[in-house]
Protein 1
Amino acid sequence: MKTVYHKADTRGHANHGWLNSYHTFSFAGYQNPERMSFGALRVLNDDTVSQGMGFGTHPHRDMEIISIPLEGDLEHKDSMGTTAVIRKGEIQVMSAGTGVQHSEYNKNKDEEVKFLQIWVFPREVGVEPRYDQISITDGAKENGFQQILSPNKNDAGVWIHQDAWFNLAKFTKGNGKNYMLNKKGNGVYAFVLKGSAKIGDRVLGERDGLGIWDTQSFNIEATEDIEILLMEVPMELPAYLK
């Protein structure tokens, strides 16, 4: 098993006043040639948006974009005609494909929005843009894995144009479980939302990340009550990026 460890305080940081953002991988003004991506996982931004502020209309193409709210409400509008509000307990996906424009705003006057913005390279370019949003509250599991994203339209969670599987896991202190990878050649980027856990010989704290590959499985053990996001993605980049 191979690993790469990213301690929370080594992430890129940009505070624009209205937006406080931490970048696990190179993004915008933060450029680190050693942290361009983890396989097909291109962006993992930990964003806080101030009251009444947000991202104005801007374009995307040929990227799978996933948003997971942690606190507050985020309003989404796009050129496909979608108007929606995503909240904690939900997940949103937008396949940018041939091109889409969207905006994201915190319309609340008394509450910040905290959310994860995640980008995954699709397996192919030029797909038809699409939007989806679902609640993941009902499927939450204590001391187990909850699949929230996959490549399969009829599987649990949202789906994207990539051989990727995302799971949320919540474990109480002293509990844990073995994670089995879904596809040979994939790796998993584990990102701690709350608490701490041990994976292999590494103890991870809040907002630490650990990339894991060249293995079929690994064990997670909660050293404190923990909430962790597991993002399984292909380690080989799509052919169009080579």
Protein 2
Amino acid sequence: MRFVTALLMMMAFFLAGFPSTKEAARSHQKDNLPIAVQGAMDIEISVLLKEMGHYKQETHGNYTYYIGKIKGIPVVISRTGIGMVNAAASTALLIEHYHPRTIINQGAAGGHDPKLHVFDSVIGVEVMNIGRLRSEHLDDGQGIRPKTWKFVETEMRENGEIKEYAAFKSDPALVKAALRAAPKYRHGKVVAGKVGSSDFWNREVDRIQWFHKNAGTSVEEMEAASVAQVAKGFNIPFLSVRTVSNSEVSGDKIEALVTAGRYCAEFAIEIVKAMGTGSLSRLAN
């Protein structure tokens, strides 16, 4: 009897160090959920589709999704459409239908940092809605004073409480994976920075410099902040990656939207490979 009791105690002690069968199954299932990669335009996803080779195409509303694999890794490619509303709507549908384990929002962007040149890429450690602004009262005839406008934080309801976010952070483990993939990028330098989003294409140098100084933005585009907000609402890890297609402040005289979109998609493929099928905890180590 003593032998049986001791044996049972040893088995219980041994099994205590391992997850239950159900826990292991859940962990395996989560690791095999797809990595979602978004691009607003065809030029930002065409390289990804070519890399997949064979894929299934599905459409929900006006938004299209391509389901397949990259190097054996399950992925879903999302063509969001241009702009904050399109990006938010397509992301919500992406999460509802495909349950991605992570979301990578990538594509071309305009430069804000004068040290960044066309084809340099930014890993967005933070993304910010730079279109959320408040102006103070001015009387009729006093004109407009954009440089006096104030940024407004984004409100979200979490567990019944209102929380405010000046910006949304990319998942640290995904940032680390992107930094590991950075040496594979051959078209310019890769830096960690801040991505600004709004439904506005800024070409005024003073305005761009104002954003860079007051918000700390490296680049600007039209989707990432709304994607990050929706991902935050559903607790889906998020990463922003952008390649500079044009800059009014760096001295570059070229505008290469198509090429920058292709280069960023190629970089996104390397990030997907760096992530593989492992868990975020493994990526963080």
Protein 3
Amino acid sequence: MKNHSLNQLLDERKLWRGQQLRPRMAASDSCCTGFKALDAALHSGGWPRSGSTELLGEYGIGELWLLMPTLRERSAARPICWLNPPYLPYPPALAQQGIAANRQLLVRPKNVNDQLWAAEELLRSGAYAAVLTWFAKTNLNDRQLRRLHIAALEGECWHLHFRPAALAQQISPAPLRLQLHTAKQALDIQIMKQQGGHAGQQLQLARPAALYLQQSPASNWPVYTTAPASNLPVQRQLKGKISLLNASILNTPARPAKQLDSVSKEQAH
């Protein structure tokens, strides 16, 4: 094993001094997560208001549900920004959670350099309460991560950095790092690092049933072995059903099938 001097370890930020820890963060430096168990596990009593927070795990396991209470509260004061999300945010679902479409910005730079530049500018601008980032290059170096964290501090912005679980052991300047795992109708959370407090706490938060698809499996779907006869009465019946369906979507009065036939004949002539 290669020997390192104490000063070298401190310079490389691989070792911290115990007296540098604050006894407890001020109440104004954090806000409630919306989950009592998570607030109790966090030394600050909630999410930090600025700086980088890393969420490590697979995408689409409930990580956004975990953030919704705080994002809803913060978006009322300043908008939030999505930078290079793996899936396109769905405005109706976010509106149902209390985050209006006009309080959000979606940015999708083409390459990693543009993503880093845009993220730093957005975080430092002071215009956004939170910036959520996913980078094409997940294994960013210490200098890149530190620039993002400092930019978030300067702009008083909450930087939510989503990263793969494989990078949990990588050194990061983010004061708060959480590792997320999916469980049966729940989300497992492990605190990997938190400023001013101990790490290693594990907890499980039950997710609401509304987040799960309440649909029977495909094996139970009906299967038709014979196709319906393609005679004229069936075609007219289908036209009538289609016109009623369109009327319900467009909120317009439905026309009878015979009237639709006569209109199509007139247009043909």
Protein 4
Amino acid sequence: MRIALVDSGIGMLSTAAALFAARPDAELYLSMDPDHMPWGPRTPAEVVERALAGAEAAVRAAGGDVDAVVVPCNTASVHGLAELRTRFEPEVPVVGTVPAIKPASAAGTPIAVWSTEATTRSEYQRRLVETFAQDVDVTPVACVGLAEAVESADPGRIAAAVAYAAERTPGRVRGIVLGCTHYDLVGEAITGALRERSGAVGGVELFTAADAVAAQALRRIGGAAAAGGGGRVRVLASGRPARLPSSALSYPAGRALAAGERSPAR
């Protein structure tokens, strides 16, 4: 089983780790784009171009044959999913990422959606809220600088960015939707910051998309799981053979993937 994952940076780690845990026999091709990151401030056309380039680089690295293309990035899913599906389907399923607003709103209690500034302002997020949380108290929270802080793995920057978002999250909130896959990597810091705030929520629940995206990808691929491991992880940096960035190893998901990493292909 060969799976390509496409994102600008290490936001893909939580989804990739979920896939590797479920299918330790799989070959994962992690196509990152450090030369052009972050994608959030780019135009939709630029995001489409970068997502297509990343997917095609991963397919080439896999010898021209992958079982699925996974897009563990909200920005790339919003702007590039249709074009990716036109390029690869029906031969290769393409699986995107949608913020977990629907499961978070199921209880009917107040929620907040933490996302990038661009996503917070987007028609895409507004439509998701209207569709799945029409009768729920929803607070959008623009997490200024948080994705970039996670990418840097700088504890001080992460703490400051998380604190900024936590201060803008009402105390009545019972669920936090992580609307950027980078945020999955600092879930403990997020819940910790909310607990420490004066009047913060008790027992706030985080809702992420990583496990659901991984499960959907495996459903689309089909086939029984192979016994044992033997899988491998390959990394591409803007199309070039590479290793996992050092920042990835700061997070459990990155360390789990590093265990299956192979030397850069030539």
